[in-house]
Design a protein that fits this description.
Strand content: 15-25%
Domain Transposase IS4-like: 22-135
Number of strands: 6
Shape: globular
InterPro entries: Transposase_11
Protein name: ISNCY family transposase
Strand order of the largest sheet: 1-2
GO biological process, one term: DNA transposition
Helix content: 25-40%
Structural class: alpha+beta
Organism: Desulfobacca acetoxidans
Oligomer: single chain
Order of helices and strands: EEEEHEHEHH
Number of helices: 4
């Protein structure tokens, strides 16, 4: 993995873990997956969806995901498992009406995702979820 120099710390920054958070209608963070390395978001989408199904006994009716998760394959997978509306922040060649039932639903899910981003930002600022010095 490529290392970057951190001018403030005067040492090499090493990247080793990536956090995936899932939130619910209330805005509460419902699940957290910490993966080793830096896997592509699109590769993790099927596992995260399966995890939601395992925890709650069903897939969510609607899901809003970051643009890195967007792919035609992930859209088909989610719809095949019973997710009615899937909103990716970046379309990556997908049409809005392919992902969701209407433009109104797309906007609602987009705004919901923006709210979750605000909660994640608060976690970073208030609780120090910015940098993790874990080893091993």
């Amino acid at each position: 993995m490529r290392q970057k120099r951190d001018p403030q710390q005067r040492r090499d920054t090493q990247y080793g873990h990536k956090i995936f958070l899932s939130g619910g209608r209330s805005g509460l963070i419902l699940d957290c997956v910490i993966s080793r390395g830096n896997p592509a978001d699109a590769v993790m989408f099927p596992d995260l969806l399966a995890r939601q199904e395992a925890i709650y006994g069903r897939v969510p009716a609607r899901t809003a995901a970051d643009g890195g998760f967007a792919s035609r394959e992930n859209l088909r997978l989610a719809q095949g498992r019973g997710v009615k509306d899937v909103m990716f922040a970046k379309k990556r060649g997908l049409g809005v009406l392919e992902m969701v039932q209407s433009l109104w639903v797309y906007k609602k899910l987009r705004n919901f995702r923006a709210g979750l981003e605000a909660n994640i930002s608060r976690l970073k600022r208030a609780f120090g979820l910015d940098r993790c010095p874990w080893q091993g």
